[in-house]
Fold this protein.
Amino acid sequence: MNHQTRVYQDVFEMLPSEENPSPMVRINKMNPSPEFELYAKLEWLNPFGSVKDRAAWAMLRELEEKGEVGNGRGLVEPTSGNTGISLAAMAKARGYHMRAVVPNKIPLEKKVLLKIAGAELDVVNDALCPAPGLGDGSINIAKSHAKAQAKKYAMPNQYENEQNVLAHVRTTGPEIWRQTEGKVTHLFVSLGTCGTVSGTSRFLKGKNPDIKVVAVQPTEGHDVPGLRNVSQLGVSRLFDSSLVDDILEVEFKLAYTRALELCQGEGLLAGPSSGLIYEGAREIILRDKKGFGVMIFPDNIFKYTSNMMKHIPGLATGNEA
Amino acid sequence: MANYAHPEVLVSTDWVKDNLDQPGIKLVEIDVDTKAYDAGHIPGAVGFNWQTQLQDQVRRDIIGKEAFEKLVGGSGLSPKDIVILYGDNNNWFAAYGFWLFKIYGHKDVRLMNGGRVKWLNEKDKPLTTDPPKIAPTQYKVTETHLELRAMLPEVMDISKTAKANLVDVRSPDEFSGKVIAPPGMTETAQRGGHIPGAKSVPWSTAVQQDGSFKSADELQAIYFQQKGVDRKKPTVAYCRIGERSSHTWFVLSYLLGLDNVKNYDGSWTEYGNVVAAPIEKG
């Protein structure tokens, strides 16, 4: 493994770490304050395409170390896509089968990618009506598979697995601290399983308790895959409000328009959750004026072309001869 | 289960575990999406699909007597069995099944408190993908209780005269008319709002975090003191398609012991589509 020449013996050596961090890129044209440095940490440059590489690897390694996978026992996991894609690709490469239980409403691209990565797909209708504290359909279906067929499936369960947090304590946090030379004042993240926010915040606040951690969430009833409104956070045991300073609610459609602006203004092919995080950062920069901010951009736009067509007028037309 | 008016119709997950394989006790899982049943069910339980097996597949209606007999007899149930129902979505569809079993006069039907999610999340409760062993029976319905069901003309009359309580169990946004249906639902209506005179008591106010019912004291405080349901009057519960209102119908009838409660299964997808029907918003 040589991070200088970037020659690796297998794909797992490319996974991010303090020595091999995901890149951070400065926001130039779209930064509203010259006195506020703003960087985007591009998680889609991880080998399996998203921030979820970190949690997936940590969860899989733990299962391997405990001997809970192998000999015909694979994985089942509820996922809105990215964790499943990372887990399926990793699992397949290491010889385990993987069943991904996904909500019907995730973009078609993600469903197809899961199959390409080798997952058996279980699509469930997830959107009846939120029930208090009970988790949603895909989580319960995955739990059912794991319970009814324990010899066949281990369930990493990203919503409750501490490895999802520890992955970011071990990698994302130290990477940012080192990349910013300790100058970071603001961290901007979105909320999904909350592994990223809890782990990165835990590390960074350990280094400097004054760092402000800003979580950006879409408005209720949103259509941004992978994210949760605070009212939906009951399902994530990993959310720790003491590690978050501000929770901003942003109109979910801005996730799509800001993603488009990032593509066209900064050359960053960022996905809608990144667009949402950027909008949150923009609002905080206008409030705080000075600082050094890092946004964790979870994935790129390629998996969301069908969602972009739905939310950006014009993208769906003029595509035929 | 203490203090409920009819505690005998509610069983705990522990009771079900202790009575697995008991002759005369039959388990039925009722889901809107039988993927849940297929992924894993309580050993011995048969699975009913609410959409395709408990609804008439031609006209909008509950299944008729013969279809009910065929379904439950074909699933190995007999009229003397103790039938335990449980299901997904907090037992909404199991409660609908309970209502249907009562309409068709089944003597001893009970709900498993907390439904499949409570069972799923308790470590000592097994799930299986093995199909149950079924010995079909010739099930005969001997009495029907259509008085448990409210139809549109009665609901219109109640709205006009206030001679009964109308309880709208949908979410506050559906009640106010901000949304016509929860996001992603295909069954909908032309108009949003609620039936004039209805009280908003969302179904979820009756359950605890783990999906099991609140205590009788808490339920009395909610329905009678806070929401002003008049226990001296008859009551009709409704929602969007009649499944969440079955849950509240069960609460009012069996846990609180009101003696004249009906489920309006036509609910908002009927009322909100009726031309010239009066609607309140907000």
Residues 162-179 of chain A form the longest helix (18 residues). Chain A touches chain B at residues 105, 122, 124-125, 127-129, 131-135, 137, 140-141, 143-145, 147-149, 221 (CB under 8 Å).
